[in-house]
Write a structure and sequence with these properties.
- The chain is α/β, with parallel strands linked by helices.
- The chain has one domain (2-130): 5'-nuclease (Rossmann fold), CATH 3.40.50.1010.
- The protein has seven helices and five strands; from the N terminus they run βααβααβααβαβ.
- A five-stranded parallel sheet has the order 3-2-1-4-5, with helices on both faces.
- It is globular, with a radius of gyration of 14 Å.
- The two termini are 19 Å apart.
């Protein structure tokens, strides 16, 4: 199972002139190897640029990306990672989206396709990352 971070999808859909080619290549490569998935957190992040939900749902379906519900054990793990973040001096006062994404990938034993490695490698070191 390959979790696809929002930055990968936004690279392609925006499109980002620097990152779109890499993101598109990796997404295609991973789709052949395993099931691509996102969760409601990623869905919310990618839906911001669209005014109609149908468009987002259609794009995801065309790409073969499933949206998985966020299980309680992932939410609990996200809270623990956020607590560690705060103890280390993190300034944010609300649980960050990356903590939900990382925890969900960890709970499922999934690999994460992302360009944002810092938080994932720090707070979820067991997650295999596919990065540039």
């Amino acid at each position: 199972m390959i979790f696809v971070d929002s930055n990968i999808l936004l690279d392609i859909w925006a499109p980002d002139p620097v990152w779109a080619p890499w993101s598109q290549t990796m997404l295609r490569r991973m789709a052949v190897q395993d099931q691509l998935v996102i969760n409601p957190i990623i869905y919310a992040e990618i839906s911001i640029q669209y005014s109609v939900q149908f468009v987002v749902d259609t794009l995801l379906k065309e790409m073969g990306i499933l949206v998985l519900d966020l299980p309680n054990d992932a939410s609990f793990m996200a809270g623990k990672a956020f607590r560690q973040y705060r103890k280390q001096g993190g300034p944010r006062t609300n649980v960050l989206p990356d903590f939900f994404i990382g925890a969900h990938a960890a709970v499922l034993g999934a690999t994460l396709l992302t360009r944002d490695t810092r938080r994932y490698s720090t707070y979820f070191p067991s997650i295999p990352l596919i990065t540039p």
